[in-house]
Fold these 2 entries.
Entry 1:
Amino acid sequence: MLTAWTIEQLTHVKRLSMAQVGKLVEDGVITTPDALARWVQMGYDPVDANLLLSIYAPGSKAPPNAQITANPLILPADGKSTSDLVVQVNSTPANPAPSGAAAIVLTTTSGTIGPVSQTSADMYHATYTAGTVAGEVTIGGTIDGKPIGLGASISLTAPVPAP
């Protein structure tokens, strides 16, 4: 088990593990931007580093109730390109899987999301259709009215004009 560290102790450590950095964030010894930078330096993809931060951030002791993933993560902002959205529910006795797709409501900051369908006991699917303005899109939602723990981000790029 890791113990709380001080800044003085950190100066003597040449390389920290992913879990050690997480513990430092959890204990409030380092800031979340510092933790993200350290995880990226360790070779973690920035998206994975953000997921790690959501696990280790102060006050986030419990795993998220669900996670939304998108594929692909980059689309042209053309109003017609699509990305598959998957909601993976982390069901436990305290957090049972919802009773059907109607319990899951997905939201987006740009573009549209089609109906949610259940593909297995803990997995749900929907299709995101790109908006027409380039930028970052956030996908979030609720399960039975409770916020989904980990959302997804999609980058919309300016469409390439036809020759």
Note: Residues 103 and 144 are 5 Å apart (CA to CA).
Entry 2:
Amino acid sequence: MASGHINAGNSSFCGGIVGWSNGADIVDCWNAASVTGGYSGGIVGAVRDGSSTISGCYNLGTVKGDSVGGIVGHLSSINSCTVSLADCYNRGEIIHKDDYSNSVGGIAGRVQNGSGNPHTLARCYNTGTIGASANTPSSGALVGWIIDPDALTDCYYLADQGVTAFGSDADTEQTTALAAEEMQASGFAAGWARPSRQIMRSRSTAATRSSSGSMPATSRRPKR
């Protein structure tokens, strides 16, 4: 979705592409519209059932909610829900809906890794601003709240934003804060193995202008 506003009010689930997923694969999608709801994500509001993949997706729009993320608002631990989220990025502003929103994250708002529900997040990055109040329990540059930080591998975020990867938790070896200059360097963008063909086709001039800065459109781990 290139522009506009999706507003679910106080409804629970709201996303730029999908509001609520029960195991659907979501591949090669992008959003530049603003999104407002409860569980809110730039791509999907919440995933609450089944085994699924979210990959090759990006968000440029402002996303506002209670559990809110640039890609997904909430990954559940119920109903054998297992999600592989990979090769995604966010460049939109992610902000709390009110003073008591519970989770705000650049990629995912809330990730509940229960026993037998091994959600994974790999090769993602966030350069969007994280806006949370002093009353927001959890806010992070990558994930607002997560049971198992080791579920993230090869993920990056823009430094000097006043938040760590997981809010109050320290970074892991697989999450790295980078300066803007490092993200703009050719080595960072070159680490992306194969940009999504659909993303490369659909990235419009309007969507590009709506993003902040001049970060690479897609990126993987920098070459060491």
Note: The chain is about 10% helix and 35% strand.
